[in-house]
Amino acid sequence: MIRIQDYTPDLKESWLRCRALAYMHSSFTDEITNQRDDIPANRRISLVAMSDKQVVGLVDAVYLDATQANPESYGFKAGTVLTTLDAVATHPDYQHRGIARDLINEVIRRLQPRGGELLIYTLDDVPANSLYRSLGAQLCYQASIVTAHSQHNQVPLWTDFKVNTEHEVDVYDTDGNKVDYAIDSETYYVGQKRHIAELDKITKISTEHVYTLKLSDEV
Length: 219
Description:
Elements: E1 2-6, H1 12-23, E2 44-51, E3 54-64, E4 82-90, H2 99-111, E5 117-122, H3 126-134, E6 138-149, E7 160-163, E8 169-172, E9 178-179, E10 181-184, E11 187-190, E12 200-214
Parallel strand pairs: 4-5
Antiparallel strand pairs: 1-2, 2-3, 3-4, 5-12, 6-11, 6-12, 7-8, 8-9, 10-11
C-alpha cells in the first residue's frame, strides 16, 4: 500500500535515489545530484509517497518571496502570493499509478490557506505536461533553452522577463533593455521562437513550459 507523508531527514538517501531514477527517464537528467536543496522547512512543503520503507514518489513546493519572483512578470497583480513546485518525481517501478497526481493534490490542499498562484515549470516531457493540464493548470508561457553559438561577442545576461499575449516572453537585460536572447548559465534563453534563428551551431533546443494554477479566489 502506498501512503503519503511529510518528508523527514532520515529519508534523504531513499529520496535522492527515487529522484535520480525518475529523472533518468525524463528531460531533467542534468538535475540529478547527490544533494537535496537546503531550504528551511518553514519555506516549503515536502511530501513523499512511501511503499514500506522506500520513497517511491516525491513533491516539493517552495514559498517564493518578492526577491525570488515578480508576480507581474507572469501577468499577475503586484502582491500576488507565489509558490512553485520545486521537484516532482515518481520511481520508475511505480509510475502510472496516480502517485504524482495524489502528491500534487495534497500539496494543493495544504496550500489553500496560503492562496495565490502555484507556478509549475517543466520541459518537453509529454506525461508531465499532460498531468499538469489535467489538474487544471493553465499554460502561462513557453520559452526556449538553446545550446548554440552566438555571433555576438557580448551577449547580455538574462535578468528579467514579462509574459506577452502570445504565451511567450519578452526578455530583458540588466539595464532593463528588451533583448532577443540572453545568457542563462551555459545556454541561451530565448523568449520567442523566431529569435532562435539568430543563433548558429545549435546542438540542443529544449522548451520550457510554465503553468499556473490558482490556489484560491483571493489575490
